[in-house]
Amino acid sequence: QVQLVESGGDSVQSGGFLRLSCAASGDTYRRTCMAWFRQGPGKEREGVATIRSDGSTVYADSVKGRFTISQDTAKNTLYLQMNSLKPEETAMYYCAARNPGYCGLARGLYYVWGRGTQVTVSS
Prior knowledge:
The strands form 2 sheets. Strands 2, 4, 5, 6, 9, 10 and 11 form a 7-stranded mixed beta sheet that branches. This protein has strands spanning 2-7, 11-13, 18-26, 33-39, 46-52, 57-59, 67-72, 77-82, 91-98, 112-113, 117-122. The model has no long low-confidence stretch (mean pLDDT 95). A hairpin with a 4-residue loop joins strand 7 (67-72) and strand 8. The protein has no helices and 11 strands. It is mainly β and 123 residues long.
């Protein structure tokens, strides 16, 4: 069984930055692919970035060049560095995991989720 616990959410000004963390535990096979999703008020949950155990990454077009996903395998922790934040990126940010194979941004293909951490960006 895999457990994911997010942290690092906060309130920031537009243009600011935050680093989110996701502490992972449990079956490493079932968290070979790790991802960040977000869900804003009244919006559907959308994929932000993913990373495989080999370090390869995928980003949503809206965050390319501003967000960086990374992982520290020794600490079993996933990170999301978010720079130049925009008010429309106010959302609950979720960490997710799945086993090998698909490692894209489709939320329906992830079956392990954390409870989320709130990010609020004010203008």
